[in-house]
Automatic annotation (TrEMBL):
Keyword NADP listed: no
Lineage of origin: Bacteria, Pseudomonadati, Pseudomonadota, Betaproteobacteria, Rhodocyclales
Organism: Zoogloea ramigera
Top-rank taxon: Bacteria
Domain Sigma-54 factor interaction stretches: 134-327
Protein name: Transcriptional regulator
Amino acid sequence: MAKILIVDDEVGIRELLSEILRDEGHDIILAENAAAARAARNAARPDLVLLDIWMPDTDGVSLLKEWSANGQLTMPVVMMSGHGTIDTAVEATRIGAMEFLEKPIALQKLLAAVKRGLARIKPAHTPSPLGLGAFARSAPLRDLKKRLEQMADKSRIILLRVGPGSLAELCARTLQRIGTPWLDLSLSAAPLELNTLEGARNGLLYVPELYYLSRPQQKNLVFAMDRLERHGHTLVVATEHGIDELIEHGWDERALTRLFEVSLAPPALGEIRDEIPEIASQILLHFVEAGEVPPRRLSSAALNALRNRNWSGGYAELKAAIKSLALGTLEEEIDMDEVAHLLVKTPTAALGLPLDLPLREAREIFERLYFEHHLQIDGSNMTRLAEKTGLERTHLYRKLKQLGISVGKRHDNGDG
């Protein structure tokens, strides 16, 4: 029969529900609080969860939000409470709960809810991209999420002032509502059309770095900015550069004034080093849930090694490293030796770069190292390389050819 996780801090209720459902032939897993529920959900992958709302560590609605944010709400969840309100029930249903049972739970209501939950057809599930909501146990990231949401509540345009170790993509994904489109305006220089904006209605428009947008892309961005309200879009852009630098680079001052009106400087990974183990663990869990990597877990030593690394490439670099580790490790647990192997094999732009060369020659060496590095960790996926580097595809191919990097056999993993 089915595997059912019962989460309730009252031992009497756990035992009663367990006895009833075992008599029905189900396998039962018990958890007395949210921490135990997280561990049980990850280990057992239950077919259905009965989740109490009021618990001593984290309330059930917050846990439901966490599962939804990190792509783990892959099973029906029935909420339970002896002190529930209509508002709480509505919120839980909006987040993704199947239904709400009021305590004391009548036997027939319980069995009917379980039957409905288990009868629900489960579509093929692809977890939503990770946002800051997936890191509910990190105080700095919770604070960052609140700031972003507060800004987005009053402004459709948010500029992220970033530097090395950027969390820009993670911030932008946080403001993308579940099930809505994501449109990266840096990936195409073709004129932006109204039907494209309409197709991305209520979605999020994103630019990873303003400095690298070509003139046609800058025009596309202004075109989209003028129509944000009409199409229900939120626009998130990021840059390491100030207004004066961007004007020198060819930007229109009026457009920049609009873009810089509401801005936020999120911390770099190096500033929240203690949060890296939590971030890395959630990234790995997300890859496993999406079926992109085999079931893997990071040892404490491996997490510490990741924490101590200088992630100058930011969230994107950390995410690529976690995926490479999960795919390249033969054992279920990823240990420190595997991380050390990755760090040794991963080239860095600074190491071995001759500093006594003319600037032009030194820059060419750096660019070759840079592109080879990202081609390696992204499996030669040109779409991801274009997104990561902020270069338009035609410009990217031309740049690789100039550097003598072969692109003839590069593939796009499904990108047309």
